[in-house]
Write a structure and sequence with these properties.
about 35% helix; 2 domains; alpha+beta; three-stranded antiparallel sheet; about 290 residues
Length: about 290
């Protein structure tokens, strides 16, 4: 609706309608195929000749829809705009009817939630309450990152070290020599603890800071997958000896180059683990010392 000369490319991913989550209407199609057809229908209603293409990307959601040409002359823009408005209103009515079937439905509360959930953006010159979609509230232009990625590095490092020591100290220490040589018989992997047990050993200030992030402690630990493995609500020290090698076979030259390029981070175990790293330097995907960095 921005202009007659507008073209578009869209890569549908999450299943959303204009006013909230997309509700399935056909059982004979997969949810993905039905949603692709819905997005293509939107393009057709807006007067585009819609084309479909499959991208060469490593994703299960790789079907794109493209609108390059209009199927009506510029003189019919006003007529098509009325058609678009009616289509949007009909979709909104369908969404409200579906929600009305729920017990204890509150129109005001739910409509506010739908507007926030849809989270679409309007052009710069459009504001909430326009004739395009009355009462629509776009999401904020600056979206706060709350997946633990913006936490200070020192804070994250302290939490990682505290949790790792907690897991390692949960088992009696084993007498062994330093593990930089790669001896795999006596390397201490520690015990596994539930997320609740780990949280109980962290101070209140740390927990308060983590609770303001989406996923909290679990997200932070999963982000640090070099050190931890979180399975079924339990935290483990990752044992890189058990990691399965890549199935892809590469030529020797390419494999050598990729190994060099891959070592851009220091090995946490080499620096912090009492037994060092469970893998020898040539097998570890991380650098054993700064001289190993590429």
């Amino acid at each position: 609706r921005s202009s007659y000369s507008c073209c578009y490319f869209v890569l549908p991913c999450c299943f959303f309608d204009f006013h909230g989550k997309y509700s399935r209407r056909q059982s004979k199609k997969t949810q993905y195929r039905e949603y692709l057809d819905f997005v293509a229908e939107v393009g057709s209603v807006c007067g585009f000749h819609v084309e479909e293409d499959c991208l060469r990307i490593p994703s299960t959601k790789r079907v794109s829809l493209i609108g390059k040409n209009r199927i009506y002359p510029p003189a019919e823009c006003a007529l098509i705009d009325k058609q678009i408005t009616q289509y949007i209103n009909n979709r909104q009515t369908c969404a409200v009817v579906m929600c009305d079937r729920r017990v204890g439905f509150n129109h005001k509360d739910h409509s506010d939630g739908l507007r926030k959930e849809a989270g679409s953006e309007l052009p710069e010159n459009e504001t909430a309450g326009t004739t395009w979609m009355p009462g629509f509230q776009p999401r904020e232009k600056v979206v706060q990152i709350r997946n633990c990625a913006s936490l200070p590095r020192d804070f994250v490092d302290d939490v990682v070290l505290n949790v790792a020591n907690l897991l390692l100290n949960a088992t009696p220490p084993k007498s062994c020599s330093h593990m930089h040589g790669g001896n795999t018989n006596i390397w201490n992997q520690g015990e596994s603890l539930s997320l609740k047990e780990v949280a109980e050993h962290l101070n209140k200030e740390t927990l308060k800071r983590l609770k303001s992030e989406y996923g909290g402690l679990q997200t932070l630990l999963k982000n640090n997958h070099q050190v931890f493995e979180v399975l079924n609500g339990r935290v483990h020290i990752r044992d890189w000896r058990k990691e399965k090698p890549s199935r892809k076979t590469k030529p020797e030259v390419k494999r050598h180059l990729s190994d060099e390029a891959f070592k851009t981070r220091l090995c946490w175990f080499f620096i912090h683990h009492p037994d060092g790293c469970s893998l020898p330097s040539e097998s570890c995907p991380y650098a054993h010392g700064t001289e190993d960095l590429r």
